[in-house]
Amino acid sequence: MGDTPARAVLIAQMTDIHVGFAPHDGEDELNLIRFRTTLKRLLEGPNRPDLLVLSGDITDRGDTESFAKTAALLADCPFPVLPLVGNHDSRAALAGAFPQIVPAEGGFLHYVVEAPLGLRIIGLDTLEDGRHGGAFCEARARWLADRLAEAPATPTLIFMHHPPVVVGIDWMDPAPHEPWIARLAAVLEGQSQVLAIHCGHLHRQIVTRFAGIPLGVTPSVAPLVAMDLSRIDPAVPDERALITTEHPAYALHRWDGANLVSHYERVGDWQVLERYHAGLMPMIENAFAERG
Fold first, then answer.
1. Within the chain, what is the greatest distance between any pair of CA atoms?
2. How far apart are CA 86 and CA 151, in angstroms?
3. Does residue 161 lie in a domain region?
């Protein structure tokens, strides 16, 4: 018998929680309800992660109270929590609520984490205060280039809030040729150790490539952006749907030491149509037998 293979590492990603959006006196806030529901799934479901990345827009207004509520709900998590800053957040309030994230030179909240099974995680800061879209200045570009140069052969996973791509949701997209996107692409071109980039911000699940690297967008915990790829005219309020009550979602990124696979789950109530009972043993056993 050979050695038992190490258990794969599970990295959960929750994004765009938007705690503090339109709270009502005497009522529980919808986004907190959605956050608790999603967190409960991680804690009590069959796939408890080894760490959790919060990829930005943790709060809606960047206020200390909303960050405190979020940190309190996460305080008893049995795994590390790695928050990133989004355009709705405040660097100072995030660092105050999550003291494990220490501001780097220039005040940026970016960092490197060494995960199990030889995986390196890089969290990027794409915030520009007062701007809805992303940013990636020369200082951040130099920092990322230096971090990648430190370990050119180490499998690396990058998390950031803003996707540096145009996906067709007009009112959420960046302009195609924004300088920050070109600056990021220049750093990442040819970096074959980067397995994938995972983002938030768009409140929908999206898969594409950037600088030759697979890029995924994880759906939001807060209400989702409507699926509408038609052009929008800012001067014509055409009554289109913008935000929907689709179920909250999260991602689980599975790293087995050689391969990275990303799973996405909506969190809500549904029926179990079948369970693994004795009558299904032949089917399950045959599935394993075919693997040899």
1. 69
2. 27
3. yes
Q: Specify the number of domains making up the chain.
A: 1
The torsion angles phi and psi of 106, rounded to 5 degrees, stand at 85, -5
What residue has token string 């709270």?
Answer: 23
Question: In this predicted structure, what is the pLDDT of residue 292?
Answer: 74
SS3 content of the chain, % helix, strand, coil (to 5): 25, 20, 55
Q: For residue 218, which of 198, 232, 189 has the smallest C-alpha distance?
A: 198
Sequence-distant (6+) residues with CB within 8 A of 279 are none
Q: Give the per-residue pLDDT at 22.
A: 76
What is the predicted pLDDT for the residue at 267? Answer: 96
CATH number at residue 266: 3.60.21.10
Give per-10-residue mean pLDDT for the chain (292 aa): 69 97 71 96 96 98 96 96 98 97 96 97 97 97 98 98 97 94 98 98 98 98 97 95 96 98 94 90 90 79
Assess if residue 3 is contained within a domain: no
Tokens found for residue 35: 């956050």
Half-sphere exposure of 29 (CA within 13 A, CB side): 18
1 domain-assigned? no
